[in-house]
Amino acid sequence: MDKICMNEACQATTSVEWKKGWGLKSDGFATLCYNCGSAYENLVYCETFHREESGWRECKLCGKRIHCGCIASKYLHDYLDFGGVGCISCAKSLETRSKRPIQIMSDDIPNGFGKLTTNNIGDPQSSVVENRMDGIGVDKGKLMLLSKTMEAKEPSYCPQTQKADINACIGQTKQEEIMLPIGEASMCFPNLVQQPVGSSTFAKSDTGIPRQGVKDMYESLAQPSLGFSLSTPLDTPNSVLPFPGGVVDRREQNKVPPFQQGQRTRHILPKPPKAGLTIGSEVNKGMISQPRVARPPAEGRGRNQLLPRYWPRITDQELQQLSGDLNSTIVPLFEKVLSASDAGRIGRLVLPKACAEAYFPPISQSEGLPLRIQDIKGKEWTFQFRFWPNNNSRMYVLEGVTPCIQNMQLQAGDTVIFSRIDPGAKLVMGFRKASNPVDMEDGQTSAIPNGAHSGETSFNGVNENQLTHGGRTNEDMLQRPPEKKRTRNIGPKSKRLLMHSEDAMELKLTWEEAQELLRPPPSAKPTIVMVEDHEFEEYDEPPVFGKRTIFTARSSGEQEQWAQCDSCSKWRKLPVEVLLPPHWTCTDNIWDSSRCSCSAPDEMDLKELESLLRVSKEFKKRKITESHKVALECEPSGLDALATAAVLGDNVGDSGEPSVGATTKHPRHRPGCTCIVCIQPPSGKGKHKPTCICNVCMTVKRRFKTLMLRKKKRQSEREAEIALGKDQDTPKDEFEMDGTSGNLLPHINHSENESSQSRIQMEVAETSTGQLDLNCDPNREEDLVADTTGVSMTSLVHAASFPLEMYMRQNGLASLGPHLLSEAADESEGCPDVGEPEDSGDEG
DNA sequence: GAGGTGCATGTGCTA
DNA sequence: AGCACATGCACCTCG
């Protein structure tokens, strides 16, 4: 059925009915008039066609029949570039000029490595083509131009694959429609690479068919070095055309047909640069970097479903070199941006279903089969290609890729490119590193995927650095399909793992601080459970965040809690023990009737407030420094932590317990916490006797001994330092604030206090008799301490730096003071004997 | 307990 | 709504 261009000024007709080109599928593609670029009416679009005899293709779904007709030169052009839909007429035209052998793709190409049959363009079919061409009223001059263009271009940017495509399409002249379903064009592409059954191998020049016109082609084919800038012609200014004589040139010289302009516009428009096909050029990049073209996938089962995101984007240069190096034809199949999972230790690379089914051997068993894939260095890897049933579908994975990925030093965000080497249909795996990690954060949109814009591809040693503009060039941005999904590649995780900066700002608080904000669930009553003689509050509901308050303490020792009204922002004084809900206003101030309204004056004058905040700020800085220091000193290794934990009975962190109803567990754990840490008996209490010599106990003892020696060394170093800086007294602010909870304590920095407590506890443990008590009771640390044979000066200094009272009160170490002192005295007399861990260290 | 394996689930995209 | 895919997670094996 003929179609008339909607553009009244054009009214061109064609017998071609278009369906969405595979490459433009998601681009809101419409069939365009080859003449003016306007869209035809009544576009036919259906992906699932099947062939019928006599040049018709019928949609399996809707039954609509589409006639195979000539496609506008634009499409031919596209075809050439991406292996798209073939055009009989153009093919014919081409044929008359180049007379080259053609390949016909078998209908069913198993495994994507199907065979091809060759044919020559000179067959009877050509006449048909010619006729048709005439029939469709295509401007011959334009076709000539097109043909010339092709001729000029092909040698340079038509890898065998593409040529094969062309050929294949041409071959279909046999009255079979050329209308290929989306992606079918792509089929053609690779064909080239495929080893044609029976005849010429385009890859090699040795095919040497002495036909005029074809010669160039062959030469080009023969020379892998020849790139195929499929896209370039459309968008690339002449000046940057890698291959002079490109279409653009001529177009411009001859005045590009409107349709082409339209087409071009389509490609360039920022909005729908979706089509990966986009071929385009990277303007301003000059010759240095070739366009990273999204090459249509090679033929393969179901390749028509292959999303552009997986189209291999190898630059001509890369491909050239690769092909040249391998002295064979490289057919880029598909690529994939590594996700965190892919690059993780699991060693499983999730394969896009369509790709797996199109290019990898068909598998019917979940176990799959081993797949040998060569890496860029020629090393061969064997992966297990298999699938998992998933939602009535399959999920294909390559297992055992970790070594390979590590070998290539790939990580999430990098791209692996699967290609095929012909002859031999060997699989080869190349990669492209994500050049701009930042982009990755942005999500998919960025660089990685398809990485058309940036990144360097490594294919057999071919690396290419591309100019980036914040990761990509404008052109890139135009070219690259705005595949949102790509973001997912890097970042789906990105979405899960990354947060916007504002969010991050919001969350800039430490775990301790966060703990301070946790409150037992409102209106939830805890169930008291007894575990090993310990009472635990158990809540059914998770904790909630409460309002942040600050604590102050006057020199008199009186503690105060302050909260800011969410409504008027005035600060109100509250009882110390009060826990506020997340949202709190003056009206909620039931403790001070005189200030239970926002109209009530502020209790704290501006000066005081500023002072408070300033102190708070300073404190925070110190706290950070301190915590880092402590972390470095006290937690030099996981082993240390282990030993320390063993010694302290998992109670190491208790010292830092904030003011809000701490449990006897780790600072992270609040009242009501029912996590394993909180509910399990401390340090194996009741599980191991002091004399136990089980493997666990022995191991811990052994490690503890190592720890002791190490600690000892550090300790003496610290002592030396302290001795030097002994005179340095920490100035006390009138208000000192607990950075985490905001506690303001008189002459004491609670937070520092906490740190000190931690340290003291640890040091006490470290310098104790070295007994390893797996049964130690967190509530009876005094026992442990009591057995201490030595306490370092450090401990004393730390202990002296804050009210012992508080320390003891918070830790229930009523008798610690005297012990500390006495132990300190002991230590001063001689080096404490860390000694071997002994089993004698009973909790009692 | 660490690591591997297979499946389930959640999220985002496409039709 | 259905699909693809990234990731989580329970279960299993092994050292």
UniProtKB/TrEMBL annotation:
Residues 451-489, 709-734, 818-844 are annotated as: Disordered. Residues 824-844 have a biased composition (Acidic residues). It is found in: Nucleus. One of its GO terms (cellular component) is nucleus. Keywords: DNA-binding, Metal-binding, Nucleus, Transcription, Transcription regulation, Zinc, Zinc-finger. Residues 472-484, 716-734 have a biased composition (Basic and acidic residues). InterPro entries: B3_DNA-bd (IPR003340), DNA-bd_pseudobarrel_sf (IPR015300), Zfn_VAL1-3_N (IPR057743), Znf_CW (IPR011124). One of its GO terms (biological process) is regulation of DNA-templated transcription. Pfam families: B3, zf-CW, zf_VAL1_N. Residues 556-606 form the CW-type domain. Residues 334-435 form the TF-B3 domain. PROSITE patterns: B3, ZF_CW. One of its GO terms (molecular function) is DNA binding. Residues 455-468 have a biased composition (Polar residues). It comes from the Eukaryota. This is TF-B3 domain-containing protein.
